[in-house]
Amino acid sequence: MKSLIKNAQLFYDHKLSNVDVLIEDGKFTKIANDIPAGDIDVIDANNELVAPGLVDVHVHFREPGQVHKETIKTGTLASAHGGFTTVGAMPNVTPVPDDADKFKKQLALNKENSLIKTLQYAPVTKDETSDELVDIEGLAKLGAFAFSNDGHGIMNAQSMFTAMERIAAIDSHLAAHVEDKNLFNKGVINFGSASRRLGLPGIQQVAETSQLARDLVLAKETGVHYHVCHISTKDGVELVRMAKDAGINVTCEASPHHLLLSDKDILTDDANFKMNPPLRSEEDRLALIAGLQDGTIDMIATDHAPHAVEEKNQGFKKSAFGITGIETSFPLMYSRLVKTGLISLEKLLDLMAYNPAKIFNLNAGEIKVGQAADFTILNLDNEYEIKTEDFLSKGKNSPFVGQNVFGLVEQTYVDGEKVYSK
Which member of 16, 170, 202, 363 has the greatest number of CB atoms within 10 A? Predict the structure, then answer.
């Protein structure tokens, strides 16, 4: 089967170009000016942006065990709505896929229900919370593209050290939620002005940075690719910056909510602003922007965390951590970072497509001959309002509802086949 993309502002070779793209059998086969259409099916981009399918290495699809929040089908449909064609699904489902049998079942569920390319994390330890390591080598052979305990910091340093050694030996990746639970103090919000004003228990920044500092020392010793999930603090960014300067194999991601919001935006006891790590101070937020600009932060990842309405309408103390985000990520980043001049469109697309694919060794994230024809068509010109009724995710829990943005996803394709259309 053949198709031809015409009239595109194509993001190709890290820059925008007015060229055509030929697709054959699900792959990009030719990129050139004025490719004749003949009897080929034409995808008319109408002079809109054609970008590689976006890549998100940090999502939660909740299936099995928590399907009232999200399913693989609704999560991947929401991903396609957001322009994403490749995602990494975290293992915090029920049961945790921490052995061969459960992991195979998870892969089968993903394959059966995904509209896009869903890659599966394996946990680092049993049930994500113990000190006992999983069969790292065996789960990697089954198809685990990386390892993460997701919402749990690994408390035992020996467990983390041994895991790093074994993950490094198979040239895989360790993605860490850095959190010392002994310093968390049952917090529900960043320790700072908002926690004091609202009378809520605060989460100290050292809960993140103390474990990050430990892990960076262990990563230096083992040589593992150590990836920091949703970095949120000024000191955390500086630790990563120093580690990179020292040659440690570390990368990190920032989430849209940490880049755009701080605890000064929390005006009431509204749990749509509750996530882990929490929204930090404005000083921390600005440090994240600086880290994005200078390359310390390698990618943007959504930490898409859908919940049912009743799980998010009970205030900070009783509601679940996390917000939905995969459908609003690109428009928010384009509107608040690119249109304001903080970064270029080209850099944003690298942060949301090329960089995560390259760092995690994925066959994704760029439009080039021989690559799978995964791409999205985006309207950058028309402003629209973020509305919950437009979400395809089951989760409606977002602090960005009601905001006006640019960057509407018009269509998304996987292997040359349309999986979403406005």
Answer: 202
